[in-house]
């Protein structure tokens, strides 16, 4: 029997070889099958920056669309169902994803519900009526300290789920953290301009921004486009606008505002348009930075960045973190003894500036610092924690002594005269100012202040700064990278 010789074209053989290589390479196969799906642009932007060098994440709510009332098309449902990792904010914001995410999770997909992440600083909604139905405020990304934590959380999830490319995620994480930290420092420095007037917001998107950067929003008309505006709330808000109680009205791009004409009828007021979802911006790694700049500029412009606060800020120059921090100063400790920068040397120092009447940020920061020291175990013997008041009028030595004992037995409270505090704050580039609300008791003032924790070396040199919002676990990881392996004999 004759057998004919089959000759395959060279291109066909090359294709077979390529297929064989792809099928035989676990890392290449893993890369091509690893798919990340996320919901909204701000979160997508952080993921896109972390995934530079890969195929990148898939975005569901793209273009000018918003998550309120959004519906997935059939193609997007398939994308969610076939995802390796799904990152969404949570049911308070993205109701359209509740069922698809649950189904994908049952099929083996990894899911990150960011409002459930214990590392992030998640605030309760100001519209929750009781503890049983406690809703969470979903706009956590408008606090850049939360975004610093988010970068770490997302990078860790990517490295765990796609270990073959962990080196890429690790490199991108370092680059992104540096950029977000720089953004955070600039926002912290620029807080003076945000308190030059009182604002009103149409929708409640700014609670995180208010707390982080001392923005004064004293009126909010509605929770979101998903809830109707109460008639009495509309009338009261209109009356306050007409009386000139607010310097600015902040709205949100793309969100329907049917009551806006009635709200502003007969009123002359600055109106600023925020874009908290980046709906008018191109999706990608730069969007988050554009979003934060746009919102900050909009708020400053709307509040008429002027007056004493703005003049004071204009005289100062922004100094990057590499600028010298620390120097000569003299303070009084909780026992009434004189303390200088020399007395604090010999151990690493964790230093936090705040005040005892602080309602939330200060106790939270001190709790995180104290918990981190507890988690360090014996290695905490290398560190001495300090709490320096920026409110010497109320925080005398006795008050400081009573206050610090609630946090850590080794925490030292430091106070002094007004001039002493001004001197040490200047050495550490700490910004603070007394704020008295119009018509309120002048003795019940609050203090706007920088909220970072400083780490100083045993010789008094500045090492780094931990942003407000960092978790105790993250602080411990960072401290371990600076501390020597040997522990001191005693504190």
Major sheet description: 7 strands, mixed
Question: Gap between N and C termini, in Å?
Answer: 95 Å
Unreliable residue stretches: 1-6, 16-31, 305-322, 487-491
**What is the 3D shape?**
globular
Main sheet: strand order: 10-9-13-12-11-16-17
Percent in helix: 25-40%
Name the average pLDDT. 85
Give the helix tally: 17
Describe this structure in words.
- The protein is of the alpha/beta class and 491 residues long.
- 38% of the residues lie in helices and 15% in strands.
- It has 17 helices and 17 strands.
- The chain has helices at residues 10-24, 26-33, 41-50, 74-81, 98-106, 144-161, 166-189, 191-194, 207-213, 231-242, 260-263, 287-302, 307-315, 361-376, 397-404, 418-427, 472-482; strands at 36-38, 58-59, 85-88, 110-113, 199-203, 217-222, 248-252, 270-274, 330-333, 338-340, 348-354, 383-389, 412-415, 432-435, 446-449, 453-456, 462-466.
- The strands form 4 sheets. It has a 7-stranded mixed β-sheet with strand order 10-9-13-12-11-16-17. Strands 2-1-3-4 form a 4-stranded parallel β-sheet, sandwiched between helices.
- Strand 9 (330-333) and strand 10 form a beta hairpin.
- Helix 6 packs antiparallel against helix 7 and helix 14 (361-376) crosses helix 17 (472-482).
- The protein is globular and about 70 Å long.
- The protein starts with 9 loop residues before the first helix and ends in a 9-residue tail after the last helix.
């Amino acid at each position: 029997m004759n057998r004919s010789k089959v000759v395959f074209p060279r291109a066909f053989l090359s294709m077979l070889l390529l297929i064989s290589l792809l099928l035989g390479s676990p890392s290449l196969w893993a890369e091509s099958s690893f798919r990340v799906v996320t919901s909204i642009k701000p979160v997508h932007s952080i993921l896109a920056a972390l995934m530079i060098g890969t195929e990148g994440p898939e975005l569901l709510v793209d273009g000018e669309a918003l998550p309120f009332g959004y519906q997935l098309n059939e193609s997007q449902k398939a994308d969610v169902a076939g995802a390796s990792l799904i990152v969404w904010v949570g049911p308070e914001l993205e109701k359209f994803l509740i069922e698809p995410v649950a189904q994908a999770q049952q099929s083996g997909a990894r899911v990150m519900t960011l409002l459930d992440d214990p590392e992030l600083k998640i605030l309760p909604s100001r519209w929750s009526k009781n503890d049983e139905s406690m809703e969470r405020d979903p706009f956590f990304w408008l606090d850049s300290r939360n975004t610093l934590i988010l970068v770490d959380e997302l990078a860790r999830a990517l490295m765990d789920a796609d270990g073959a490319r962990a080196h890429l995620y690790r490199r991108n994480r370092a680059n992104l953290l540096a950029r977000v930290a720089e953004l955070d420092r600039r926002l912290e420095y620029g807080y003076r301009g945000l308190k030059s007037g009182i604002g009103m917001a149409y929708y409640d998107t700014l609670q995180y921004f208010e707390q982080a950067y001392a923005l004064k929003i004293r009126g909010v008309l509605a929770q979101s486009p998903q809830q109707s505006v109460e008639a009495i709330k509309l009338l009261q808000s209109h009356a306050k606008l007409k009386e000139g109680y607010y310097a600015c009205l902040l709205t949100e791009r793309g969100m329907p505002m049917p009551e806006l004409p009635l709200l502003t009828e007969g009123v002359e007021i600055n109106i600023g348009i925020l874009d908290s979802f980046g709906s008018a911006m191109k999706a990608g790694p730069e969007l988050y930075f554009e979003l934060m700049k746009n919102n900050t500029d909009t708020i400053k412009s709307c509040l008429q960045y002027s007056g004493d606060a703005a003049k004071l800020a204009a005289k100062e120059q922004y100094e990057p973190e590499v600028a010298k921090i620390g120097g000569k100063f003299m303070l009084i400790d909780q026992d009434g003894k004189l303390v200088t920068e020399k007395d604090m040397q010999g151990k690493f120092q964790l230093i936090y500036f705040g005040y005892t009447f602080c309602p939330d940020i200060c106790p939270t920061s001190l709790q995180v610092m104290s918990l981190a020291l507890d988690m360090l175990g014996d290695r905490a013997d290398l560190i001495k924690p300090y709490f320096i008041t920026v409110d010497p009028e109320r925080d005398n030595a006795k008050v400081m002594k009573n206050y610090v004992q609630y946090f850590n037995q080794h925490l030292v409270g430091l106070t002094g005269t007004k001039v002493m505090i001004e001197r040490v704050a200047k050495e550490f580039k700490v910004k603070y100012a007394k704020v008295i609300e119009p018509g309120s008791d002048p003795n019940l003032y609050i203090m706007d202040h920088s909220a970072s924790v400083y780490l100083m070396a045993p010789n008094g040199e500045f090492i780094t700064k931990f942003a407000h919002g960092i978790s105790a676990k993250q602080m411990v990881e960072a401290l371990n990278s600076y501390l020597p392996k040997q522990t001191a004999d005693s504190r």
